[in-house]
Write a structure and sequence with these properties.
The structure is a single chain. The chain is an alpha+beta fold and 121 residues long. Helices cover 16% and strands 26% of the residues. The strands form two sheets. Strands 4-3-2-1-5 form a five-stranded antiparallel β-sheet. Strands 6-7 form a two-stranded antiparallel sheet. Strand 2 and strand 3 form a beta hairpin. It is globular and about 40 Å long. The mean pLDDT is 84.
């Protein structure tokens, strides 16, 4: 699989997001740099994906707490969420036969561009 900026990948036990790719190297979250060859896909349901959540811009809560300037985020794990309130991520993974998180990320980019996976803060 060819990884792109924004993909969630693993290097050994570290699961992180690719911030950018330069000269055959991926710069991951917290400016950790590694060669692309060292990166692997994160298997769905492996436990290594527990820190991943689904964000959908159109589904974000419009409520802003006093003193805050960002919408409230949904902290549920990505497999427990739905894209549009109806299409569940877990049923999409099952029906499409996805095994890895980056496969789901490609599908989201093509079919639900307002939604993306990110690492829980």
């Amino acid at each position: 699989m060819k990884f792109v900026t924004g993909d969630i990948v693993q290097d050994g036990t570290l699961v992180s997001t690719i911030k950018r790719i330069e000269n055959g190297h991926a710069v991951l979250t917290k400016n950790y740099e590694v060669t692309l060859e060292r990166l692997n896909s994160v298997e769905i349901g492996s436990g290594k994906d527990n820190g991943i959540v689904l964000e959908c811009e159109k589904l974000r809560a419009p409520i802003i707490a006093p003193g805050k300037n960002t919408p409230i985020r949904n902290p549920k794990p990505y497999l427990e969420n739905g894209i549009d309130g109806y299409t569940s991520i877990s049923s999409t993974v099952e029906s499409k036969g996805f095994k890895y998180v980056d496969e789901l990320q490609v599908w989201l980019r093509e079919n639900a561009p307002d939604c993306y996976l990110r690492m829980r803060i």
